[in-house]
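Section 5.1 Outputs to date
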Amino acid sequence: MERPTRKKSTPTRSSRAAVDNNSVLFTIGRMNPPTPGHKKLIQTMIVEALSNEIPIVFVNLTSTTGLNSEGKVNPLACKKKKQIVQKMIEQIKKELASEYDPVVIEALQVIVNCADDEDIQHRLKPNQIPDLLIGMFNKLKMIEGYNERLMPERINFRLYLGEKDFGKFNWLEKTFPFNDKTSGIKFDLKSIKVKRPPGDMSATYLRNLTIRDDVEFMQAMMALAEEQGKELTEKELDALATLDRQSVFIQEMSKVGLDDAEAAKLFVDIQREIEKYQKNPTSTTTTARKTTTRKKKGGKRSNGHKRRTKKHVKKSKGRR
């Protein structure tokens, strides 16, 4: 079979590990919500699979909901994230149809797993990342003819991660099934970093857009900027104060395959879930948030930001 050629969809990788037809490509992520950056990561894996005649790719989603240890809300259940990712995959395949043989694209399996899927999670210890991997291994073994095409001595597992998560899962190498002493197969596990396309919004940015209260929105956006080592300028604060947040959210989610009605509903769903936890925060969560803020903000500078935030909120309300 003639090997498909790459065109504009060449993966935007900043680190390279050998990928061949003896490889298993997968990712692990929160994707809450899935973003155009996640779409690019999955597209990178799909292009690599098509270019190396790899018949299967795995997208593994964590299933944490509610508040995490940093006090940030995970608003979407994994089944909802899975639905969005599957729409995303359909869109990617359509976009690649002019570059690759449609028959080969259709034959490529992109399997989306949730940590809380009934056929994956451990009954006594649910929602664990190692169970995601075991579920992935089990499904790999069930693919007819796939075991025969892999070298019996060694399988190359390639974990694709965004820049923020790169290095986060190095501990996997020491877990079962990668560290199965009874297996005669050696697993070569390497991570591949995928750069986020310039201008694409992070999941945190998209969640922030759903914050109803103007002051809380501005504070969240300034906190996000500080996490990234930036300080918003007066011009940027002005732009945020007048931003049509729902329209921006809908436009961004259209890039992952949602229509306007689906994106608008998702906006409201995330908004309600975040507000639920804002109204009833636990004392532990509140402490965690304050500790993070103190570490990252100086007293006078932080207060100055808050005064500026209120000024910009008043401006925006006047303009509306």
